[in-house]
Amino acid sequence: MVWLFLKEAHGKKKSKILENLGSMKFNILLISLLVFTSSCYSQKKANKEDYSDDWAALHKYQQQNLDLGLPKKGEKRVVFLGSSIFEFWKEKDPAYFEGKAYIDRGISGQISPQLLIRFRQDVIDLHPKAVIILAGSNDLAGSKGHVDNKVIMDNIRSMTELAKANKIKVILCKYLPIYEYPWNKVRAAESIMALNQEIEDYANQNKLTILDYFTPLKDDRNGQRAEWTIDGVHPNLEGYKVMEKVTDEIINKVLK
To answer: Containing domain of residue 195, as a range?
Structure first.
């Protein structure tokens, strides 16, 4: 009996030891997995490029510009320089840009000084025949009180002068109608209309071409027509189709 008792006790002790060993192995495996995952995350984080010193996001189109190279013989490039209205255009209707020498260089959220910084890389260096400049709305949307129409117009003037110095024809846009910015509830209609008038006056004084996106898209509040916009600021596909018609008319006139 004593022998059986000792044997049973020994078996239980052995089972407990094995159980503890199994638990230890699991814990070691779990810790190793956590360390490996953390190491991978840290490595990924360390490898992520830091573009905090590139305020104008020059890196966005840098490689695409290099891949594009110089224009082919007879190629009449037109660069679309702007912010989200232009960037989302090629996403909403990529077919519009296919088979044409249209180069979309829009970056969402950008203000006019950022466009000015990008002008050499994303316009001049691509050797276009013409540039379409759509600027000003994001400057006004900031609503911090530090940017007025003079600042916006100064940047538009500078871009125009750079284009002229490089024999690039300038097409200035009257901005799309916006009644109110949905993200901060700032009423924009009067400000947009005032800016558009200054852009038009400047274009007339300097014999530049105006591309009017305001008139065909406006409603009775001088905002965008509801059936042609997703949020009162950005067009939907139907809105872009309206823009495409007036854009092609102007480009054909400028490049003829």
So the answer is: 62-255
